[in-house]
Every structure is written in C-alpha cells, then in structure tokens.
Amino acid sequence: MTDILAPFAYLCGKPIATAKIKAQAKDFQVIEDLGFDFSGEGEHLMVRIRKEGENTAFVANEIARLCGVPSKNVGWAGLKDRHAVTEQWLSVHLPKPEMRFDPQELEDLHPSIKVLETSRHNKKLRPGDLASNQFVIRLTDISDQADILARLEKIQHLGVPNYYGAQRFGREGNNLHEARRWGRDNVRTRNQNKRSMYLSTARSWIFNHIVSSRIEQGVFETLLEGDIVRNSLGETLMVDADNITQLQPQLAQAQIQITAALAGDNALPTQGQALQLEQVFVDAEEDLMKLIRGNRMRHDRRVIGLTAHNMQWHQEQDDIVLSFSLPAGCFATSILRELINEVEVQRVYAD
Questions:
Q1: 125 and 209 part of one domain
Q2: Could you give the residue numbers annotated as active site?
C-alpha cells in the first residue's frame, strides 16, 4: 500500500522500529468523550454503543432501519475505526412517543455491537460535537523496543506534528485524487457528504505541506514575523517585530501555539515570512484551490503541534501498550507515525 504521508517530514526523524498496531481489533481501543451532559429530555434518543469490526456509518444505518426513520435522522460526533473496539454516542430523532428503539434487537442482529446506555437530548449530534478521544493502543511484533521507548520520552516532551492522518485522504489517496478532479472539472453535486469530504481533504493536504515545510526549515518551534498564534482560550494574535521576542518564551512554555492555514477563498491572513511560507503551498495546488474557492470556503487556522494528554505506556512481554487522549479532530496515527514504521495487517471483511 502506498504511504501517502511519505512526503511529510518527521519531527524526531524517521522511526527505526517496525510494529503492528491492529493485529487484533482489541489492540486499538477508542472511547469518545463528548464533553457535555445531555438535557435528559427532547426529541433525540442518545445511544451509547461499543462496537468491534463495524464502521460508524453502518451502525447508524442499522439503527435508522430498526427505528423506521431515514438515515439522515441519525447523527454522530465522530467517525470511529472499523478494525478497533470503540465506544461512542449516536443520536436518533424519535419525536413521537410511539417511535421506539429496541437495543436488544440491534444486539441480536449484530453481536459485534453492544448498547451501553441511552438518554434523551434536545439536539442532534453533529460531526465535531465532542471534546476528545481516549486511546489505548497495543504495539505488537516490535522489531526494536528500545527505539520506541526512547521516542515515547521525546514525544511526551516535544509533541508531534498535528498532521491529518492518511485516512483523511482515502485508500491509495483516492479522496485527494477526486478532490483535484472536482476542482479541475468544476464538479457540482447535491451530495453534501462527498462535498464535505473532498473539501476537507483539499484543505488538509495543503495544511500538512505547510507543517512539513516548517519542520524542514527548522521553524516548527520558532516564531516567524507574520505568524498567527493561538492561546489556551482560543484567542489569536499576530506575531510582529514588536512582540516576537516576548512571545517566543510563551511558545516554549506552551502558553501559545503556532497555527497554519486551512485554506479558504479569502486571502491568507498571515504576513511577512509566515505568509511567504504558506502561500507557496496554496499556489502549488491550483486544482484543490479551485474546489475550495468554488465552494466559498472561508479561511481557518489549525495548530501545527499536537501534544497527547495523560500519555502513559508500559511493556507487556514483547508488546508495548500506550494510552493517551487527543482533542477532537486530531489523529492518533500522527502519534504512531513518529513512533514506528507500521507493518500492514492483511485482513478480509465479509460483505
């Protein structure tokens, strides 16, 4: 399989060790934390599930079918891996008293899905409606434990590049190829899911290139004049000649974070050196920018560094088990990419 992330730089250098991360589904566990409480009443039934070997969309469609409602009436905060053991919430719009959901019916049809609890809420779950994900990951068939353990120490201190993971770009980069084609051919569609997916792909690809360039140029942890930084309250600030000396120590102490462009149809808001660095990659992707501009996407920012919260690890014989949590929208594979060269696991799914 082609490694679509191969062009992007490593913060700690390319790993030495090889390992498997999903030899079995239970080796990759994810628990979703929405970060808010439900109202306890309302038209939306909230269903917390544990699943193994199923993707989120399949479970959502099955719940919709059993409830007799369109699939669009079922919402979720985030898509979860298929080959993993994952826990997450889904919402299903059941406004009438006679509209019911039978957890046992779902479990009888699909033993790989368990309903853990239900509640009521006054709003549908939508993508991004979560605070974080907790991961427990077992690395198996490891070729060099010492290298992984040394890298874990570095990652705990330095963090990793906040790259979008390979799954964002589709199998063999198909989403990226399609995003370019849509831009080049001016494709129009009413399929909002595809539109959203290809727009996200386009912006993510450009973002990854900007982050990689900062590593290659040695300014991943160094402020440039014209940078836009974000503090812990989510407020942004422009770096200029007057404040750069004051802000650099704040960056070192993680009080602020450097951001990079999620390109839009408006001009980049960075200035000076930072603008020059980012503009190169915006200009290099003409087809992706045609898609972005044609859909009137507005510019946004994303922090370039990712630090795992509550990161811990231990050895179990020949395996290493690590646990950490990441904010919504961040990829566990970005942590793993700095740790190991993944050995692909061949698996066959039933239709």
A1: no
A2: 81
